[in-house]
Design a protein that fits this description.
With about 550 residues, the protein is an alpha+beta fold. About 25% of the residues lie in helices and about 25% in strands.
């Protein structure tokens, strides 16, 4: 039966309160205070689902809120020095920072918590009239008879696992708008829908992703070097697997330490989580963390395709911005400033669309005229060069970025989608990872506990299998079911209690909304959709 839903009407509805969505809302109200703007955020609060390194470039913020310093933005820790290490199993080689491409230098940047910056941006947005609704997940797109997007529907609350309405049932709302903005972050489920529906990625290079891990540690003062930014390449990954680490010394004797692995890796036995844990045992890293305390953990997919994978970002009634579109600058290891700028450009076009009926397609024109386009263009060849393995890629990147400054007269393509890269298990080398010591390395259960993730237990599983039989009948035999290893939260298991009848288990309550399964599953059998609003991680200062 049809559910009677209440409707709310706005000029603009924005899906996602990350840097892109918040920047869009602020710029809209700056340009036209009379516009009615709302933001839907699936997390329990703004920042709850935000995870980033984060070394922050202020360029976009300088344009959006020039007096951010006097308004006490949580941007305090300037980058004071940098290190880059190549790691062997026990050794490390320091790379001179003056030889690094300018795109990888951070002397004007800040070490921040992006979650806290988003909370501050939300305060700025609300102070000028933006309405923000945390805990409301946009679950469906509303189309008119001409397939124009006219709003979104928030998810129903109070449905049990069998799909029946509980006593607490509350139908979702129809949020109608003249323009809808998708700013969900990497692999947004509605963004994925519109890209497919409107064929926005036609003639584009296949999108690329990585999985990023982050922990926050409190360390002894004499091991802390506030303002130090350090990156590494090499061990424990082999030369054919793209990835590397970051270690940022923030304020209050805290260190942000993390690892990023490209999801185009080939070996189905590789566990990104365990690679990260093992990395922390390297002498160059363990000396920083010894006698310290781990206080936070999280993981998130990163969008890395860059310039050649950018989809068309406009469609009837809507725009696609930020990491939902893929504006992250991979070699810079930054996406917050580009996400914000994409939102600011969107705001200008949206206002002209509403006031003067200017086409939303003008977004593409203004995007190409901005500094964000030039920045992504110059970085375009770095990620695809890693298909040649580490050393050739480093040599090529040096030529591309230092000699030609990103203006080589050709553009490399990404060879395939990440889910196509796994080789069969019988052709792969098994990887034996060390046991966790509970001091530097930790199991997934204790790590997930630190995320504060929570989902109502009696609700439909939000990790949908297109074919429920495929994991056991095909993926287990062909790839030894890699979901057991690529998931950073222990969501997927193979229950072998009955050796003759293994079962694929989904622990959906553990999900931290990283979207890795949606990306890496070799048959694209897993579809990530939003659970009930406010479900998922509750990151504090990530």
């Amino acid at each position: 039966m049809d559910i009677q839903r209440e409707s709310m009407e706005y000029d603009v509805v924005i899906v996602g309160a990350g840097p892109a969505g918040l920047a869009t809302s602020i710029k809209l109200k700056q340009i036209n205070p009379d516009l009615n703007v709302c933001i839907l955020e699936k997390g329990s609060e703004v920042g709850a689902h935000i995870l980033s390194g984060n070394v922050f470039e202020t360029r976009a913020l300088d344009e959006l809120i020039p007096d951010w310093k006097t308004k006490n933005a949580p941007i305090k820790t300037k980058v004071k020095k940098e290190k880059f290490l190549f790691l062997g199993k026990k050794s490390s080689l320091s790379w001179p920072t003056w030889l690094l491409p300018s795109v990888q230098k951070n002397h004007k940047n800040y070490i921040i918590s992006l979650a806290n910056l988003c909370r501050w941006l939300a305060e700025q947005a609300e102070s000028i009239g933006v309405e923000i609704f945390p805990g409301f997940a946009a679950s469906k797109i509303i189309y008119d008879e001409d397939d124009k997007i006219i709003g979104v529907q928030t998810g129903d609350m109070g449905i049990d696992k069998q799909g029946n309405n509980k006593d607490s049932f509350e139908p979702g709302l129809n949020i109608m708008a003249k323009v809808t903005v998708f700013s969900e972050g990497c692999r947004g489920h509605l963004g994925k829908e519109v890209i497919k529906k409107y064929k926005l990625d036609n003639n584009k290079s296949p999108q690329q992703y990585g999985i990023g891990f982050k922990e926050i540690w409190e360390i002894p003062e004499d091991q802390h070097d506030e303002g130090l930014v350090m990156h590494t390449a090499g061990w424990p990954l082999d030369n054919s697997t793209y990835g590397g680490s970051f270690c940022y010394h923030a304020e209050k004797n805290q260190v942000f330490i993390g690892y990023v692995i490209g999801l185009d890796y080939q070996n189905p036995y590789l566990s990104p989580y365990d690679e990260f844990q093992q990395f922390k045992t390297h002498p160059a890293i363990s000396k920083i963390l010894k006698n310290g305390k781990r206080i936070s953990y999280g993981a998130r997919a990163l969008i890395e395709g860059g310039f050649q994978s950018l989809p068309t970002m406009h469609m009837p009634g809507a725009l696609l911005i930020g990491c939902d579109a893929g504006t992250l600058n991979m070699p810079k290891i930054k996406g917050s400033h580009t996400a914000m700028k994409s939102g600011m450009i969107a705001a200008e076009v949206i206002n002209e669309n509403i006031i003067n009926n200017v086409s939303l397609s003008d977004y593409e024109i203004k995007f190409k005229q901005s500094w964000i386009y030039n920045e992504l263009y110059k970085a375009r060849n770095v990620k695809p060069s890693f298909q040649w393995s580490l050393i050739p890629a480093i040599i090529f990147t040096g030529i591309d970025q230092i000699v030609f400054r990103g203006y080589l007269p050709f553009t490399l393509k990404h060879p395939h989608s990440d889910h196509e890269s796994l080789i069969p298990a019988h052709k792969a080398k098994k990887i034996e990872y060390p046991k966790y010591d509970g001091k530097l390395t930790f199991d997934k259960t204790s790590s997930v506990y630190l995320t504060g993730t929570n989902h109502e237990s009696d609700q439909p599983v939000h990790l949908k299998l297109k074919d429920p039989d495929l994991p056991i009948k095909y993926t287990l035999n062909e790839y030894d079911e890699p979901a057991q290893r690529y998931c950073p939260a222990g969501v997927y298991e193979v229950d072998r209690t009955d050796q003759n009848n293994p079962k694929f288990v989904i622990n959906a309550q553990n999900c931290i909304h990283c979207k890795t399964c949606d990306i890496k599953e070799p048959s694209q059998n897993i579809n990530w959709v939003v659970p009930e609003g406010a479900g998922g991680p509750n990151y504090a200062n990530m």
